[in-house]
Amino acid sequence: MLPIAQPGPMTDDERFMFESFGYLMIEDVLTDQEIEDTLEASKRIHADTTEVWRQIGKGFETESAIENLIDHPAVLPKVRALYSDQFVLQSAWCTVQKANSGSIGWHQDGSGMYQFSKLSYPLPLLQLRASYSLTDQSHEMMGNMMMIPGSHRSPVPLPEHQRKALKASPIQHNVLCKAGAVLLFHNGMWHSPMPNDQDFDRYNMHYIYSPPWVRRSDRFETSAEFLERTTPLRRALMGEYDRPDAPFGGGAPPIPFDD
Ligand SMILES: O=C(O)CCC(=O)C(=O)O
């Protein structure tokens, strides 16, 4: 029972799976070259990392391989479908789980300052996460993502005593995938990284897409150099509008998609 989707536009069947499970899995998205380039970029970004688990944001400003995945054609059409073409890149986190380490922590995405669960039930879609696996996770204990299908619709939280558990629930799914696969999931999904008992570091590259008025979380502002040199589409996805004093009063310019 895997919510497997195909690269490209969201089909009605995929949309139903996404709404029911809270996530989709798209296999074989990246080419070997893209995996290698993005992995090398991730290692450069984490060159000084000493923690066993760490995430570093806005790597797209300096690393072209990371920039190139912002609007990947396998994934972006599904983001467009879920947000009706109105969204920004709220953050992009490069996450490492070091060799022979674990940092289980079941959580929903959102803001600890003011949880999304205070807004409404069911939880609205506010952070749609596309997670690219950059290292092999084709068997368990490779830093895989662990997900609880349908948990974005649960009116009660995962019990506190399960938040550090490897087996938090009999209905959890320990995602097995090769490097180059993408998990696309709703902020309400209860999830956690699995420990990594391999002798190599596990890397994931996460892109978080949000409605245009959600504040960026990996940067206070996008680098001017990046905005200058990137494509019109990526510039628009940064959400740096011309009228920062009143960016939504008169609406925002449409995102220049090709179609
Ligand atoms: O890549 C990982 O280790 C998981 C990241 C994660 O769950 C998160 O940042 O919310």
Task: Give a nutshell description of this structure.
With 259 residues, the chain is α+β, with helices and mostly antiparallel strands. It has helices spanning 12-21, 32-45, 64-67, 76-83, 224-229, 232-237; strands at 4-5, 23-26, 53-57, 88-97, 128-133, 145-147, 173-174, 182-185, 191-193, 202-210. Strand 1, helix 1 and strand 2 (23-26) form a beta-alpha-beta unit.
- What is the oligomeric state here? single chain
Helix content: 10-25%
CATH topology: Jelly Rolls
Question: What is the level-2 CATH architecture name?
Answer: Sandwich
Q: How would you sum up the major sheet?
A: 7 strands, mixed
Please give the domain count: 1
> Helices and strands, in N-to-C order?
EHEHEHHEEEEEEEHH
How are the strands of the largest sheet arranged?
1-2-8-5-10-4-3
Structural class estimated from helices and strands: alpha+beta
Q: Based on Cα principal axes, name the global outline.
A: globular
Stretches where pLDDT is under 50 for at least 5 consecutive residues are none
Q: Please state roughly what percent of the residues sit in beta strands, choosing from under 5%, 5-15%, 15-25%, 25-35%, 35-45% or over 45%.
A: 15-25%
Highest CATH level, the class: Mainly Beta
Tally of helical segments: 6
Question: Mean pLDDT across all residues, rounded?
Answer: 96
CATH superfamily: q2cbj1_9rhob like domain
Number of strand segments: 10
What small molecules does this complex bind? 2-oxoglutaric acid
**What is Rg?**
18 Å
Terminal Cα span: 34 Å
Feature tags:
single chain, 259 residues, alpha+beta, Jelly Rolls, three-stranded antiparallel sheet, 6 helices, 19% helix, 19% strand
